């Protein structure tokens, strides 16, 4: 019973935190940068000065003897799919949040932004296989269920198969959707299913990193264990050359991840467990809004 209360408390805390952000910063930004599936015909009406000439319905105009135009409204409703990595490496966190907890907060923000705009939101949790699929639906209760699962679902697998998660998303999403892919991307090549997903959907990749993964502290000999494979390695962290090689390899990988997504036309938002994610999200919305304005 106490565990259930703790779970509800954690979910409520995240809901309140992210709802405040949506109210003050992100609701309008979300609506402006994620568009509906197209335009729906609504009616024809008489032409008025300033109307777009290309919108004239020539058949109706010919019958009525006066100019009439077609009026369309945007089909606003979206489907949002959250694809979240729940592999063993996501449990790591050297600061306040683990990578999985950070993913849950950001996913919550997008889920409630979607619900606020009357959009559907669904979820795929994955490790070395798809662990859970929650079909897209509307409503606060549905969004809260998604956040609960992201935070507290106990996966059977430990590894990370981004490719399998994207294949599953491509299979279940029949119409164009906004796909948020949250992971540390410590995974084998997934370029082929990413190519397909990026062609069909609006994909946003969100790499999540922890500062302790970026550099080795000078603390002598340390046994490192891979959370996903169980493999162990003894490293002398007092060796300056070892620390330098590690930093160089990590820096190269951190540059390659967003570069590889850019090749497929996929936007990225890199988040760190030791930094406020709000500026990174604001920057993403601002850049995308600017790009859309330029056409």
Which SSEs are present, and which pair or pack?
Layout: H1 2-33, E1 38-46, H2 58-64, E2 68-75, E3 79-85, H3 99-116, E4 120-126, E5 130-137, H4 140-152, H5 162-172, E6 178-183, H6 191-200, E7 202-209, E8 221-225, E9 232-236, H7 240-263, E10 267-268, E11 271-272, H8 278-294
Parallel strand pairs: 3-4, 3-6, 6-7, 7-10, 7-11
Antiparallel strand pairs: 1-2, 4-5, 8-9
Helix pairs in contact: 1-3, 1-4, 1-8, 3-4, 5-6
What does this structure look like?
- The chain is an alpha/beta fold and 295 residues long.
- It folds into two domains: 2-33 and 79-294, 3-Layer(aba) Sandwich (Rossmann fold), CATH 3.40.50.410; 38-75, no CATH class.
- Helices cover 45% and strands 23% of the residues.
- It is built from eight helices and eleven strands.
- The protein has helices at 2-33, 58-64, 99-116, 140-152, 162-172, 191-200, 240-263, 278-294; strands at 38-46, 68-75, 79-85, 120-126, 130-137, 178-183, 202-209, 221-225, 232-236, 267-268, 271-272.
- The strands form three sheets. Strands 3, 4, 5, 6, 7, 10 and 11 form a seven-stranded mixed sheet that branches. A two-stranded antiparallel ribbon has the order 1-2.
- The termini are far apart.
- The model has no long low-confidence stretch (mean pLDDT 82).
